[in-house]
Specification:
The chain has one domain (about 1-40, about 125-170, about 200-385). It has helices spanning about 5-20, 75, 80-85, 90-145, 205-235, 240-255, 265-270, 275-280, 305-310, 335-380, and strands at about 45-50, 60-65, 70, 150-160, 160-180, 185-205, 260-265, 280-290, 290, 295, 320-325, 330-335. The protein contains ten helices and twelve strands.
């Protein structure tokens, strides 16, 4: 392959990997806001029943069945019941119901807070793991900058996001009678209006991010098909073709730059087996050519039009000869080694800043929720002794 062909291929490849690699290793980081909602067992605004579970103080909220309705509990109990146990006083019975409803509300709050605590812990675990793998990559990159690099490999995965999580909740809890038609199902049960509480959780991936990774894989496959087509035909890739693809993909890169992170390949299986199983990642390996114990620099071979185009997008520094294997597609090309390594350091540090802030946030949320739950427990969840 001629030097010109390598430069043309380098430009085309960089336009594709700008979405995948440069997009990961540069750009402004921001938070995504994908909703990651749990499935509620009822429709918002519907009549629900609130039932204690065997695991005190937990409760379960579910929608009443079709054909069921609620009515006054005392009426369903009957006069004999009220007379026998409450000296004929419906008001005294209703007072008992009020206390029981207050208890259910306390238990509901405890269940909600306990669910939040569980998610706080999961979020902390996930954020801490990502801090570890990003720091490990950063340490590796720093070592590579100080030593002769012959090979560098990374895996691109979703960078995680803080999204919404909904929790089952009921408003206007009261004790009522539940009927199926005219038949009494139970004379006393907690009922309310189905609603929800919204919290935040940290998750590594989502359907949206998986779709964007598929898009990046598709763009890389297109690039490889173009390269191989010209290679088989024994022709050089027209500069006009490269320029059009480069501009299109750099625009796409801007939309994706904040959503993905690079980690070392060995950490994929250890920390992200689900991502590995789903093939929800992209691999990249760079092999650098060596001569007389040194990298082969090719700066003086850069065509001016390519140099100016890359400079416009901030791609500067020494270019070296090598091979890049991206998601299984291999390219003989020239690589901006200093740019890639320095940007990796910059953006890895930006990811660490973001993740450490999230870690502190979830630690604070966990502490606050633990205090809330203890306060409820100390009050016996507002239940009668």
């Amino acid at each position: 392959m001629t030097s010109k062909d390598k430069w043309l291929q380098a430009s085309l490849l960089l336009s594709s990997t700008a979405v995948i690699v440069v997009g990961v290793l540069s750009g402004t980081l921001a938070q995504s806001n994908f909703m990651s909602a749990s499935v509620l067992q009822y429709e918002i605004g519907s009549t629900v029943k609130i039932e204690p579970t065997s695991n005190f103080p937990d409760i379960n909220i579910s929608q009443i069945e079709a054909g069921q309705s609620v009515s006054d509990s005392a009426t369903c109990q009957g006069k004999d019941f009220i007379s026998r146990y409450y000296k004929g006083s419906k008001a005294r019975y209703n007072q008992t119901l009020t206390l029981e409803a207050t208890c259910l509300r306390g238990r509901q709050n405890a269940t909600y807070i306990a669910d939040q605590i569980a998610d706080n812990k999961k979020s902390l675990e996930s954020v801490t793991a990502m801090i570890g793998v990003v720091q490990k990559l950063l340490d590796s990159a720093n070592a590579k900058e100080k030593n002769l690099v012959t090979r560098a490999s990374v895996v691109i995965i979703p960078a995680g996001f803080e999204g919404g999580e909904n929790y089952a909740f009921a408003d206007n809890i009261d004790m009522k009678c539940l009927k199926q038609g005219k038949e009494v199902v139970t004379a006393k049960i907690g009922v309310g209006t189905g609603s929800e509480q919204i919290g935040t959780v940290f998750k590594v991936s989502s359907k949206e991010l998986e779709d964007e990774l598929i898009l990046m894989k598709t763009e890389n496959a297109k690039t490889n098909k173009i390269v191989q087509g010209y290679k088989v035909a024994g022709k050089s890739i027209p500069i006009g073709t490269i320029s059009g693809i480069f501009l299109d993909l750099m625009a796409l890169r801007g939309k994706m730059a904040n959503k993905f992170v690079a980690i070392l390949p060995e950490d994929l299986h250890t920390y992200y087996p689900d991502i590995e199983t789903k093939n929800n990642y992209i691999t990249m390996t760079m092999d650098f050519d060596i001569k007389d114990g040194k990298l082969i620099k090719v700066n003086d071979q850069i065509p001016w039009i390519i140099k100016n185009t890359m400079s416009t997008f901030g791609i500067k520094g020494d270019f070296v000869s090598g091979t890049i294997t991206l998601d299984g597609a291999k390219y003989e090309t020239f690589l901006p080694i200093q740019y890639m390594l320095s940007d990796n350091t910059k953006v890895s540090n930006a990811h660490l800043t973001r993740l450490k802030a999230l870690k502190e946030r979830y630690e604070n949320l966990l502490t606050q929720n633990m205090i809330k739950l203890k306060t409820l427990a100390d009050k016996k969840y507002n239940c009668p002794s």
